TrEMBL record:
Antitoxin Xre/MbcA/ParS-like toxin-binding domain ranges (all copies): 114-162
Protein name: DUF2384 domain-containing protein
Organism: Salmonirosea aquatica
Single annotated GO MF: DNA binding
InterPro entries associated with the record: Antitox_Xre (IPR011979), Xre-like_HTH (IPR046847), Xre/MbcA/ParS-like_toxin-bd (IPR024467)
Residue intervals of the Antitoxin Xre-like helix-turn-helix domain: 47-107
Superkingdom of origin: Bacteria
Length: 165
C-alpha cells in the first residue's frame, strides 16, 4: 500500500472515529477534523481517544503502517494473537483504555522513528539491534511498558538531533 494512500485511509478512519458520540462525550471541544499527525501531537485529543477506546478499524490501519509484527502487538497489548483475530471479526469492537493507550504509544514511536530514519526498513533494523545507550537492549524489548517507550522516544530524539552516546 502506498504511503499517501495509507495516510489518507488513516486520516479518514480517524475523522470517522472522532465524530463518534463515544469520543464526543469525553472531548466535546473538538471543532474540526484533524489529520493523523495532528492527532498524535494533541495530548488532550489522545486522552479522549484512550478513554473512548480505539476501534479495531483504526487499530488495523495503525498496525499496517507500524514496524511491529502481530506477535509484537499481542505482546505490547498483553493479549493473545487469538484474541486479536477474534476482535478483527467482531463488528464495532473498541479496545479498553489500557490497550488503546498502548496502541497510541506505538503509533507515536512509529511516527518519531519514521521522522528520524525516513524508512521502515531502517526503523525495523534499529528496533531489533541492541543499543548501547539503552543498556545494550534492543529498543523493541523496551516498548512493553510506558517507561521503556519514553526511553526509546528519548533515544530517537537524541539521534535526530545528532547526540550520539
Amino acid at each position: 500500500m502506498a504511503k499517501s494512500t495509507s495516510k489518507a485511509k488513516l486520516n479518514q478512519e480517524l475523522a470517522s472515529f472522532l465524530r463518534n458520540p463515544r469520543i464526543n462525550e469525553v472531548f466535546a471541544e473538538r471543532k474540526k477534523d484533524v489529520s493523523y499527525d495532528e492527532f498524535l501531537s494533541n495530548k488532550m485529543l489522545i486522552i479522549a481517544a484512550i478513554r473512548a477506546g480505539v476501534p479495531y478499524s483504526l487499530f488495523s490501519l495503525i498496525q499496517q503502517q507500524a514496524p511491529f509484527s502481530e506477535d509484537d502487538w499481542a505482546d505490547f497489548l498483553d493479549i493473545s494473537t487469538k484474541s486479536l483475530h477474534r476482535y478483527k471479526t467482531s463488528d464495532d469492537f473498541y479496545f479498553k483504555a489500557i490497550h488503546s493507550e498502548k496502541i497510541i504509544e506505538m503509533a507515536e514511536v512509529t511516527q518519531v522513528g519514521m521522522d528520524v530514519f525516513g524508512s521502515m526498513d531502517k526503523l525495523k533494523l534499529w528496533l531489533h539491534t541492541p543499543n548501547f545507550a539503552l543498556g545494550k537492549l534492543k529498543p523493541l524489548e523496551l516498548l512493553k511498558d510506558s517507561y521503556g517507550k519514553e526511553l526509546v522516544i528519548s533515544e530517537l530524539t537524541r539521534i535526530n538531533h545528532g547526540i550520539l552516546v
